[in-house]
Amino acid sequence: MLWRDRTYRKHACLFPRSNDMIHQQLQNVFSLFSALKTFGELYRQASPLTHLDGWSLDGRDPDVIRQLMPLMDWFYHHYYRVSTDGWEHIPDDENVMLVGSHNGGLASPDMYMIVYDWCRRFGPERPLYGLMNHNIWKVCPALAHLVTQIGAIHTHPRVAMAALKRQASIGVYPGGLQDVFRPYARRHQIDLQNRKGFIKLAIRESVLVVPMISYGAHSTLIVLTDIYPLVKLLHEKGMPWPLGIDPEVFPIYLGLPWGLAIGPLPNLPLPVKIHTRICPPIRFEHYGANASRDVDYVNACYEQVRTQMQLDLDKLVAEKQQ
Question: Which of 23, 30, 166, 245 has a C-alpha 20 to 30 A away from that of 159?
Answer without folding.
Answer: 245
